[in-house]
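Handout, section B. The chain below has 383 residues.
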Amino acid sequence: MHAYLDNAATTPVAPEVVKAMMDVYTSVHGNPSSTHAPGRKAKALIETSRRTIASLLGVPPRTICFTSGGTEADNHAIQAAVSCLGVNRIITSAAEHSAVIKATKQASDRHHLELVHVQHHADGQVDMDHLAELLAGSEKTTLVSLMHANNEVGVMVDLAWLSALCREHGALLHSDTVQTMGHYPLDLNAVDVDFLACSAHKLHGPKGTGFLYANPKLRIDGMIVGGGQERMLRGGTENVAGIVGLAEAFAAAFEHMAEHEAHIRAMKARMVQGLRERIPGVVFNGDSDKKDRLYTVLNVQFPEHANGGMAVFLLDLEGVACSGGSACSSGATLGSHVLRALQFHDSNKASVRFSFSRYTSEADIDFALDAAQKVFAPAEEVV
């Protein structure tokens, strides 16, 4: 048996998504920019998908720009804010996704703008009082870039409250919503943000497809130039099958959101209870076991153990897929930048991220608990 508990890195593609995409691959051959019937058919699928997603978010279809995923969407938002909207100051966090950290650093270096990092509380939550002080302390045109939910430890920000604070101070707001799109309801009629990001493969859609939401009141340029695709915002022939798959996954996620959430929360609670019972001394980084944290993610710090340095590898050998940090930072040798930024890192203790989906079963959880108990067994129990 194997247990896949790395759904924050990517999720299995849903069967209905595969079917929808295969229908495109086998029957829709036209270039969406072509004016003949096959081209118009492809274009119609793209625009229908755009309308599906926009309607679920409560926004006009023109606000949805299809991309290759969340990283591109984050980069586009940050670059557009600087080059098109006059931003000369960015407030972000050292615990953001690497796409945001590197894009904001690049913007600061290239355009000589001010880059400021907001503080966090001891539990990992963004210090909103400090953010308010930063916003009040400058008259520069400011972009706030803070993720809705942290992809490693699950701490969340209240987007409505954050939006109101940014509007009070005349700041633009970008939020990396890759981990929450399709998992939490989001009505953009009620929450006034400027940029959001989505990646299909985080909600049982295909890899290599996502979108940028840009507030309709903004006027921005494309990051990738070429043809006039995506209303001049992204040159290049569109990934028709990927876009159709994204829309299919998005619609299913919204339709069954409450049911999926209840199931995933139950699986996570089973994991928390089992870890506490089987491995005394476990700690949940960022209080990721709490109900007000991202319900798909659990970040566990295990007690000091000889196997700690190879925990993810040893769990993999036992058949459990999990991670020590963001998959987008694979290959890093210093451990998770998020745990370091939030001061959860302990070089003597292993921290492992388990993440769950609607396909996670009780058998998966119990199998993973057996594996963790074996890897972190007391020395006297190791044969």
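Note. The chain has a mean pLDDT of 95. Compare this with the example in section A.
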